[in-house]
Write a structure and sequence with these properties.
By secondary structure, this protein is α/β, with parallel strands linked by helices. It has eleven helices and eleven strands. Helix content is about 40%, strand content about 15%. Strands 1, 2, 3, 4, 5, 6, 7, 8, 9, 10 and 11 form an eleven-stranded mixed β-sheet that branches. α8 links the parallel β9 and β10. It binds ligand PBG and zinc ion.
Amino acid sequence: MYPQVRLRRLRRNPALRRMFDMALPGPEKFVWPVFVVEGEGQRQTIDAMPGQYRLSVDMLLKELEPVAKMDIGGILIFGLVDESQKDDCGTAAHDDKGAVQEAVRAVRNAYPDLVVFTDVCLCAYTTHGHCGPLNDSGDVNNDASNEMLAKVAVSHAAAGADCVAPSAMMDGQVLAIREALTREGLDQTLLMSYSTKFASAMYGPFREAEQSAPQKGDRQGYQASYRDLRQAIRESELDEEEGADILMVKPSLFYMDIISLLRDQTHLPMAAYNVSGEYSMLIASADRGWGDLRGMVRESTAGLVRAGTDILLSYWANRYDEFFKD
Ligand code: PBG
Ligand code: ZN
């Protein structure tokens, strides 16, 4: 007790603080989400996500040069197609010549040390913008979606993806994908499930980037409710049973309780997706002069690590050195 105990002794100067502080995550823990489009020479700005771009494959390779030099762990590839290529089921998502599949091959080849993750979903490929085909009542057809998602995952894995990451929140999607991969002899492909993914108001900037907002309705019929903690935990439990190699909580900053609970009950690696709205809100605050960006990025990321996150899906990754190097 005070006056004998004085905690300030332990943080009296930078040398002591550095000794007792946990380390911030190294670059190898970061996975950078990227958006790829068809064509060449494309580097489209995204209004709601300053510093992020829609890139054609050639430009992605260029953009990755400094990022790979920082020794980032990997990238997570999202694809987009023109309106004209969308249909009710999202067929273009499993086109072997699609932008994602081409990007996987190109990045594998140019940057063999980057771990290549792909997002497996249909919302950027369906005319209605939902994460799977609809049934007659306008609801997403769960089992038909699983069949499509399995095809998409196989096409990504066949192109050379290290890890496929289904984000549609369909029941049984992990099992469907794992079985399809096994059937195709792709037994080395990792599967990272967006296992506890909430219906969140923090995806707005991403939906602008991906042009993937639902035309009608919302995603509450498939994404988890942030007001039902037990069900949110069951979502991850079931994905572990279905054969996921890595679990994920998404969004991240408002859900550190979930990360921490799952960390205590699973032995799988845990990812957290620091989503677009979480990215853009810090930038918006800094732009108004209300906060120091580097400070906010470091503090929020440290929180995720403390909560139990192993790998970080983070739009800060392409500026790793600036934010995280001392
Ligand atoms: C779609 C998907 C979304 C994100 C990743 N995959 C948006 C959504 O569910 O509407 C969000 C990523 C972000 O906000 O950064 N399956
Ligand atoms: Zn989706």
